[in-house]
Amino acid sequence: MKKGITALGCFFIAIAAFLYAAKHITAAIISAYINTPDVNYYEGAYELIGFGMTFWTLLSLLAGILFLLIGIWPSIKGVLQVKNPNSSMNKNI
User: DSSP label at 35?
Assistant: First the structure.
């Protein structure tokens, strides 16, 4: 396992989680003083933030998954390889 690349993948996934939470917290702060019992402005504040933060969240998540898979690929490859236990016996015959 490549620990450096795996750690980088976990870092990018953590950044994606932080950005996802930050978008929701930002929308809650924007709409904190304009909510009324009749109307909820959270959805409008959430849309006001726009696609920019969502783009960076998705990009960070994809980079994290990519680096994580590259880092653990040797371990996955070792598990997927099936060794034939009879292959050494066939050479002696």
Answer: -
Tens-place pLDDT, residues 39-65: 677 778 888 888 989 999 999 999 999
Token pair listed for 93? 């015959």
How many residues would you count in the chain? 93
Distance CA 42, CA 27 (A): 6
**H-run or E-run covering 18:** helix 3-30
How many whole angstroms separate alpha carbon 69 and alpha carbon 21?
24
Look up the pTM and report it.
0.74
What is the rounded CA–CA span in Å between residue 3 and residue 52?
31
Helices (H), 31-93: 42-49, 51-80, 87-92
